[in-house]
Design brief:
This protein is α/β, with parallel strands linked by helices and 410 residues long. Helix content is 27%, strand content 21%.
Length: 410
């Protein structure tokens, strides 16, 4: 029985929400080849993702850390598309893929991803069979690990686990000062295989050092007892920058793979020269003249003080674009910027054309740019909205089409 059939029999229908790309494989199209007034295509918003940029960022990370990379693809690959990004990263030889939900891992299996997949999210008794039969590595830190042992025994397999130690994050994990007995128990269970041991840093520079010390002490005591722990890992994207002592046997970058940094300081330094991978586009769906005194949107949120030309775009907060951007928000049509007006609604956004008669129905509008010199990159758009670039990217609606750009030689 293949994986897809297995998932169907288990009632675990693959998440088509994560496979919304219009093309299985697309190639870079020169911008001047896009017809400005072409109305033949859909006017729904869409995302473009440069896999080349993700590959470039991966190479930059590898050059810096010189240890294996487990790519974090949780939350729909930070809005970039779970399946296509994971397939690409697997081809690029990453050590593994880290997801945040069991269903994400099962979806990757159903879509033909064969490498190591670590579910960093929780699991329950009823999930154990799917984890074992889906050949996933499960993050563990409680006595519930015996459910995986029992399921693996029934199927004559070994369940892969990654032991998570809480060194001060106080979110999940076995507390470091009580971790050794659980590690010993897990190592003694014949149907479990320890792929690794991990912790999560708080991203407080001084405390992270203490966390690392606690973590390595736990690992050292376990290894003295002859326990094989697999790969030790602690550094996410933030952990790439303090120093090589945090790299251990493997790193697990997330936001840096997609072209952004974990905080404003590292973003400004841009020490890796990262390339943003994602662009968000919408289209002009309606244009009208607004007379002085007329209003826009619910509750008459905007009132014109003069005659204006206004364009409506077919994108709103239901698509994940932040509702907080009006008054500060900008979009780009061609090489010209236009201000966002009034409050976003679920499916619409309005812009002030400043009486520019050159804008036409069907024109493509950039809301998030992948051009580093643009003032529409995700970090800048997020700052205008008062949120983080993590939230901006992750909250993009997974139902929006995602077109993947990759050079022909890959």
């Amino acid at each position: 029985m293949d994986r897809r059939k297995f998932l169907e029999t288990m009632g675990l229908t693959p998440l088509s929400v994560y496979t919304t790309s219009r093309y299985a494989e697309t190639y870079q199209v020169p911008q001047d080849a896009v017809k400005k007034d072409d109305k033949s295509g859909s006017l729904d918003p869409q995302v473009e993702v440069s896999l080349d940029h993700i590959g470039f960022n991966l190479d930059r990370i590898r050059k810096k850390v010189k240890v294996p990379v487990m790519a974090v693809v949780k939350a729909n690959a930070y809005g970039h598309g779970l399946v296509e990004v994971s397939r690409y990263l697997e081809k690029r030889g990453v050590e593994g893929l880290m997801v945040g939900k069991l269903q994400e891992g099962l979806e990757l299996r159903s879509q033909g991803v064969n490498g190591l997949i670590l579910n960093f999210g929780p699991f329950g008794k009823d999930d154990s069979e799917a984890i074992v039969r889906g050949d996933l590595c499960q993050n563990v830190y409680t006595e519930d690990v015996h459910y995986l042992e029992e399921a693996a025994r029934r199927f004559g397999q070994k369940a892969g686990v990654d032991i998570h130690v809480d060194t001060g994050m106080n979110r999940v994990g076995i507390p470091y000062d009580r971790a050794l007995p659980l590690i010993e128990k897990i190592s003694s269970l014949p149907h479990l295989k320890i792929h690794g041991i991990s912790t999560t840093l708080t991203e407080d520079p001084d405390f992270d050092k203490e966390q690392l010390k606690r973590f390595l002490d736990v690992c050292g005591r376990a290894q003295k007892k002859g326990i094989s722990l697999g790969k030790k890992h602690a550094a996410g994207s933030d952990g790439l920058f303090p120093g090589p002592e945090f790299y251990l046997d493997m790193v697990r970058p997330g936001i840096t793979l997609y072209g952004y940094y974990p905080n404003s300081e590292t973003q400004k330094e841009d020490s890796l020269g990262l390339r943003p991978a994602l662009q968000l586009f919408a289209y002009v769906t309606f244009i009208k003249e607004l007379a002085r005194g007329e209003s826009l949107s619910y509750h008459r949120a905007f009132k014109a003080k003069k005659k204006m030309r206004v364009a409506t775009l077919g994108i709103g907060y239901s698509d994940g674009f932040p509702a907080q951007v009006p008054d500060k928000g900008l979009v780009s049509i061609g090489n010209k910027k236009y201000k966002i007006m009034a409050a976003l609604t679920a499916n619409h956004l309005m812009i002030d054309l400043d009486n520019d008669a050159s804008v036409k129905l069907g024109d493509r509008v950039s809301l998030i740019s992948s051009q580093k010199d643009s003032d529409l990159t995700a970090d800048i758009v997020a700052e205008r909205a008062g949120i983080s670039d993590y939230k901006l990217l992750i909250c993009l609606n997974p139902l929006m089409p995602r077109n993947y750009l990759v050079s022909r030689e890959q």
